[in-house]
Amino acid sequence: MSPQRHFEGIAVSGGVVTGKVFRLDPRRLSAEPRSIPDEKVAQEIERFMKAVEYSRKRIQKIRKKAEQATDASHANIFDVHLMMLDDPMFYNETIEGIRREKMNAEYMLSQTVEKLATLFGNMKDGYFAERVSDIYDLANQIMSLLRKDVRHPLRDLREPVIVAAYDLGPSDTVVMDGSKVIGFVTNIGGPTSHTAIMAKALEIPAVVGVAGFVEKVATGDTLIVDGTSGKVIIKPTAEEIKKYKIIQQRLREQKQSLCVLCDLEARTLDGYSIELSANIEIPEETKHIKSHGADGIGLFRTEFIYLNRNGMPDEEEQYQIYKDVLGAVRPKPVIFRTFDLGGDKFISGVSFKELNPFLGLRAIRLGLANPEIFKTQMRAILRASMHGNAKMMFPMISCVEEVRQIKKLLREIMDEMDAEGVNYIKDIELGIMVEIPSAAVMADILAKEVNFFSIGTNDLIQYTLAVDRVNERVAHLYQPYNPAILRLIRDTIIAAHKNNIWVGLCGEMAADPMTAVILLGLGIDELSMGPIAIPEVKRVIRSVRLADAKRLTEEILQMGTAAEIKRLVAAYARQIV
Ligand code: PEP
Ligand code: MG
Questions:
Q1: In whole angstroms, what is the distance from residue 431 CA to residue 391 CA?
Q2: Which architecture, in CATH terms, is 262-573?
């Protein structure tokens, strides 16, 4: 039987690309074998022992922090790692291996780990089988110390490649060089996972949730990725390459034809304007603001600054980044969202894997539990506010108390800065993300506490419909058109406007032109999306009348299912295209 060449997954970032694959090793532990001369064997063993010692200290430190931040049961996870470090099967086996085989520590460690993982993985007892991921975690830590760097395989790419991986975490995507990574395909992931968001930010075609893919592809294979239809082809035929070249050309022409809209307003045929802003993840993306005709940055996901590094960014480093971003888009506004770590974005030492990370110590919860880290960020944003039009926004607000707690912290920081004579914009606009259903329900009260709302539908959908946003197996239940979602959005907008504050929406839903028409009809003031989506959304807004959008929305709000709503919207779309 010939090997499978055609795959299908969830299309998350449009466009077509043909190129060579770079396969990211799912377990990232492979190490090149290197012979060690007799006289250097003792030194090699010493190098391994030092890495283990360093690792032990690091784990003990993290354990202590975990114990302070949460209950003891979380800290126990680290006890397992500490125990493993001392386990003869792990420690002695590697040392013996170096001595016996006269091979480098990295290679012998990878050999030990493979043996242990097979042994544990085959055990009937679930507890031991589950320890396999702990073994890999631990070994990865030691491996990065042995390699004396935290360099990521994706940082050193020399040729343009399509990355194939089991999964790509934000700490992977954040190091990617946009000029070298021309597409990606992952085995897991959903439409609003951060992998998907990052692909759009880099403007590269991507397909996620392609079951069994990474196992079937090898580095160097030629691949076609169609990020518009979700199709992926390994080793395409000449015929297939020709067909996709034509599609690629057509998409390129479409994109160019939209450029003419860049300098125009998002104004309906009957003269009603809304703002179209950009979501950015990394500061380099500010270059897309002007070229895609954005009215500003509606969401700067600042958490990416914290990822893939040793230690936290200090106030000065953050201040410089925020100042540069403000300077790059001035006089247009920048909404700095304070870090949304946790969920599917981890940093060692502060956030750690929980059983239900999306329901755990994430975003503002993590900030309030670590006030020093949170205050450092707020201080940096406040200082930077002197250099442009800055606003500050807080993620994952679930209740009024959290907002009051934040404002109290902010008051303390402002008093400190006043005493030190440090300048900042005193009446900086403060906003919250409405992305937890309780916040939408309490919007009338919350609106009295802040200057604006931004509805985060990526999470609002996941929490309202109880559908994990990164789980491809329930992706079919993740429905932006679900009437429950549209009603929550409607109620949030009404509550905001009654209290004279503006309301935007920065989830992926904003990037769908037809949804944008519904949101226009619901009275949204601003839509923020990956810059690449702006021209098309603008084109559609400029081809409709507000009065018609309102009528459509009223009809939609009477409907009971997402399917009915989708049908009606599709019929409307055919009329305006
Ligand atoms: C959202 O939840 O809609 C959102 C914009 O935030 P993030 O995708 O970063 O969670
Ligand atoms: Mg969110």
A1: 8
A2: Alpha-Beta Barrel (3.20)
Give pTM, 2 decimals.
0.73
CB 303 less than 6 A from any atom of ligand 1 = no
The two structure tokens encoding residue 76: 């126990």
Q: Is the CB of 458 under 6 A from ligand 1?
A: yes
Where in the chain are the domains? 6-22+153-254, 38-146, 262-573
Selecting among 74, 288, 292, 506, the annotated active-site residue is 506
Kindly calculate the radius of gyration of the chain based on its CA atoms and give it in whole angstroms. 25
For the residues 21-43, what does the mean pLDDT come to? 81
**Of the listed ranges 54-58, 63-67, 243-247, the one predicted with least confidence:** 63-67
Active site residue 259: no
Does any ligand 1 atom lie closer than 6 A to the CB of residue 193? no
Candidates 81, 194, 288, 292; catalytic one = 194
Sign of CA dihedral 115, 121, 123, 128: positive
Closest CA to 297 of 271, 325, 256: 325
Q: What is the 3-state secondary structure (H, E, C) of 92-128?
A: HHHHHHHHHHCECHHHHHHHHHHHHHHHHHCCCCHHH
Write out the E strands in 212-284.
222-226, 231-234, 266-267, 273-280
CA of 73 to the centre of ligand 1 (A): 29
Domain 6-22+153-254: CATH class, spelled out: alpha beta
Please confirm, yes or no, whether 194 is among the known catalytic residues: yes
State the closest ligand 1 atom to the C-alpha of 435, by its place in the atom list counted from 1.
Answer: 2
Minimum-distance ligand to the CA of 507? Answer: 1
Distance from residue 197's CA to the centre of ligand 1 (Å): 9
CA of 38 to the centre of ligand 2 (A): 55
Q: Which helix (H) or strand (E) holds 164?
A: strand 161-165
Counting ligands in written order, the one closest to the CA of 457 is 1
Take atom 3 of ligand 1 and give the residue whose Cα is closest: 456
Alpha-carbon distance of 264 to 249, in angstroms, equals: 26
Domain 38-146: top CATH class: mainly alpha
435 lines ligand 1 (CB under 6 A): yes
Give the pLDDT confidence of 315-358 residue by residue, as tens digits: 999 999 999 999 999 999 999 999 999 887 776 556 566 788 89
pLDDT at 27 over 60: no
Distance of CA 456 from the midpoint of ligand 1 (Å): 5
Q: Residue 428 carries which DSSP code?
A: -
- Residue 525 Cβ inside 6 Å of ligand 1? The answer reads no
Phi, psi of 570 (to 5 degrees): -65, -40
**For 113-153, how does the pLDDT look when each residue is reduced to its tens digit (9 = 90+)?**
888 877 776 766 656 655 665 677 678 778 877 876 555 67
